[in-house]
Amino acid sequence: MNNSIKSKNYWIKLLPVIILHILYLIFCNSFDKFTRVYFDLVFYLLIAIYFFVLRDWRFSEWGSALKTGKAFWLPVLFTVLGLAAAFAAGFGVALLFPGANDGMGVFGINSWPTLIAFALVTILLPPIAEEAFYRKAVTAFDTKTILVASTIISIFLFASEHSLMPLGFVQACLWAVPFNLAYIKTKNIYVCMTAHFLCNFIVNGMTVITSAKGLW
Fold first, then answer.
1. Angle subtended by helix axes 189-215 and 112-119, to nearest 10
2. Angle between helix 189-215 and 59-66 (nearest 10)
3. pTM of the predicted model, to two decimals?
4. Which pLDDT tens digit goes with each residue over 74-90?
5. Mean pLDDT value across residues 130-150
6. Measuring CA to CA, which residue among 184, 104, 192 is closest to residue 152?
7. Rounded to an integer, what distance in angstroms lies between the CA atom of residue 188 and that of residue 61?
8. Helix (H, G, I), strand (E, B) or coil at 82
9. Which of 54, 136, 138, 198 would you call most buried, defined as having the most Cβ atoms within 10 angstroms of its Cβ?
10. 94-108 core/surface letters (b: 16 or more CB in 10 A; e: else)
């Protein structure tokens, strides 16, 4: 069922995660790069568990979606390509402001626990937590105006989680657009989760592998 801002459940569902999001923004820069990864791990886990309890996502449903063929995988492919274009656009924006601080969080890896946490918070958990929250929970389909407004709020919330610095915020807004478009078009959160996971794996998978080799 599509979200409706006229439903009390919409606001009740959002309130706890909005509070958690605000707390995250307040305290996320209070940690060094080796402990920040655990803070983000807790943040993503809490959101993922919260929406799991609400039955907004299930691994079994995700697995079933992966088997549905072209109708599922074509939107995933277009979303991945869209995100690649968004990353390129974000890189282009960064080139316009050389030396500008993007404010993106940096994680350090110096042990197996930090490596495992890094893998979880850069590959597996964001596709679940971010898509369940910023896309599925926030996006409302009551009217076109409400859809546009809730989509903009979704993008801004997603971007603020990544950075509050102007450059990083703009870059993260660009990254959010393909996911939001995919969800609006398909209304299938597992399309967004799958594309998000694939992009995260492509970007961060090699770091996990090389870090693991360094720890042996």
1. 160
2. 100
3. 0.95
4. 999 999 999 999 999 99
5. 97
6. 184
7. 11
8. helix
9. 138
10. beeeeeeebbebebe
Identify the sign of the CA torsion 91, 190, 76, 139: negative
Q: Per residue in 176-214, is it b (16+ CB within 10 Å) or e — as a string?
A: bbbbbbbbeebebbbbbbbbbbbbbbeebeebbeebeee
Residue with tokens 């946490």: 117
pLDDT in tens, 39-69: 999 999 999 999 999 999 999 999 999 999 9
How far is 119 from 205, CA to CA, in rounded Å? 8
How many residues in the chain? 216
Give the closest residue to 200 by CA, choosing from 68, 44, 92, 74: 44
Tell me the two tokens of residue 32: 């060094």
Residue whose C-alpha is closest to residue 122's, from 9, 22, 6, 206: 206
- Main-chain dihedrals φ then ψ at residue 185, nearest 5 degrees: -70, -45
